[in-house]
Design a protein that fits this description.
Blueprint (H helix, E strand, L loop, with lengths): L6 E5 L3 H13 L5 E4 L2 H7 L7 E6 L7 H10 L6 E5 L4 H9 L4 E4 L4 H33 L3 H10 L5 H8 L3 H14 L5 H11 L5
Parallel strand pairs: 1-2, 1-3, 3-4, 4-5
Helix pairs in contact: 6-8, 7-8
Length: about 210
C-alpha cells in the first residue's frame, strides 16, 4: 500500500494569508492542506490524519490564541508538530513556544525559504514519532503476551538480578525461573539480556 500523503494544517485568521500560504505549500508538492480561520475552528473540527502531519499556526488571533491551542494539544497528548508564524511576535513568546516543543517560530511575512524547510523538518519529526509510536505499540503487544509470573520474572531480571536471587524473591526454585526467563526472551522476541533491558526501559519496567 502507498504511504499516506502528508497533511499540513494551517490556522490563521487572515483569509488572504491562508490563501497565499496554501498556494505556497501546494507549490512545494504538499497537496493536502487544510485551512482554518481560528484556533477554535481547528479544535471544533477535530481533524484526523493517518500519515505525517504538521500545523502552521498564527500565534495572535482573536479568542483562542496560537499558544492556547498549543497548550490544548499538549494537554490531549497530541504529538502534532507546530510551526508558529506571527507578525507581532516577541522573544518571550518565541521562547515559550519553543520550550513547549514548537518546531520553529517564523516572523510574517513568511516566505518559501523559511516556511518550506520548516514544514519539511516538522513532517520529518512527525514521521519519526509515528515510527516510534508503532514500535512501542508492538513492544507492548509482546509484553501483553506474558503471563503474570513471566512479567514478575522479567521485572526482576532486567534489574540485573541473578536467577537464584529471582527464585528466592518469588519463592520458587532456580530451574523454574530459567524456564520462565526463556519464555520471556522468546515472547519479547529478544536474543540477549541487553536487548530485554532496552525494551524494558522503553516500557518503564525495572526503574526504581
Amino acid at each position: 500500500m502507498p504511504s499516506p500523503q502528508p497533511i499540513v494544517f494551517l490556522v490563521d485568521d487572515d483569509a488572504s494569508v491562508r490563501r497565499a500560504l496554501t498556494r505556497l505549500i501546494k507549490s512545494a508538492g504538499h497537496q493536502q492542506v487544510q485551512g482554518f480561520a481560528s484556533a477554535q475552528a481547528f479544535l471544533d473540527a477535530k481533524p484526523q490524519w493517518v500519515g505525517p502531519a504538521c500545523l502552521v499556526l498564527d500565534i495572535r488571533m482573536p479568542g483562542v490564541s496560537g499558544l492556547d491551542l498549543q497548550s490544548e494539544l499538549l494537554a490531549s497528548n497530541s504529538i502534532l508538530p507546530i510551526i508558529f508564524i506571527t507578525g507581532h511576535g516577541d522573544i518571550p513568546m518565541s521562547v515559550k513556544a519553543m520550550k513547549a516543543g514548537a518546531v520553529d517560530f517564523l516572523p510574517k511575512p513568511v516566505g518559501e525559504k523559511t516556511l518550506l524547510p520548516a514544514i519539511e523538518q516538522a513532517l520529518a519529526r512527525a514521521s519519526r514519532q509515528r515510527a516510534e509510536a508503532a514500535e512501542l505499540q508492538d513492544i507492548r503487544r509482546r509484553l501483553d503476551s506474558l503471563t503474570p509470573r513471566e512479567r514478575e520474572v522479567m521485572g526482576l531480571v532486567v534489574t540485573g538480578m541473578l536467577n537464584k536471587r529471582v527464585a528466592y524473591e518469588l519463592g520458587t526454585v532456580e530451574k523454574t525461573i530459567k524456564v520462565h526467563r526463556a519464555r520471556v526472551m522468546e515472547k519479547m522476541e529478544v536474543g540477549s539480556l541487553a536487548e530485554l533491558v532496552r525494551l524494558a526501559e522503553r516500557l518503564g519496567i525495572g526503574k526504581t
